[in-house]
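Bumping with the actual sequence this time:
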Amino acid sequence: MNADGGCPALELRGLSKSFGGLAAVRGVTLTVMPGQRKAIIGPNGAGKTTLFNLITGILPASSGQVMLFGQDVTKWPSHRRTALGMARTFQVTSLFPRLTVLDNVLLAIEGLRPTKFVMWRFLSSYRDVYEKAHGLLERARFLDRKDTEVRYLSHGEQRQLEIVVGLASDPKILLLDEPAAGLSSGESSEMIQFLAQLDRSLAILLIEHDMDVVFDVAEHISVLHFGQVLEAGPAEQIRRSEKVQQIYLGTG
């Protein structure tokens, strides 16, 4: 339990990962409460993606714990963490470009179900799946593009659609791996607006290089440097931090 009596959506306790003699993540401790918006920033090679891979179960931790809604999931595989309420987007687009927006969301929803596809049933007979897909697209203000093939969307729209696909599992915490990567400044502004209108009960933890996105979306920021948390605090504190400015200016 947290000091305020609530159970954290995610809690990292001294999480570490070594590859041979190299410590990629060193003793990271972090708490994300339900509905909180947090960011992890740091220069390239700071260990951000490795940390996400530990949180989501892609990599095993060398030491420390990952707690999800009060349960120790440190040794759980990714799909069990998803079932408990965690979802993640990746840096690299994982959409089907020649399928429509709607089809991509339908596949994401259907892929989570124990039955998967029964080939002799028309997809249109999966009424509840269709209704859920429409609901997700409507809430994300994407319904007008439901019949568009993904390859015809702008890069920014594709990144937003990936988040909609991530929401298919009804997560309570969403991990965003550089959602603004490769976006123009205009597209980054659209991403900020898109993230702002997501359900406020959803906890978000994001890795991001675009500082405009970080400061507009996150209330609290942890700065990772050589695998450990150098500084953590409210966004305004991190914005003013001399230590953080030195790291970013010092690494060009």
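The tokens above came from a reply further down the thread. The CA atoms of residues 96 and 104 lie 7 Å apart.
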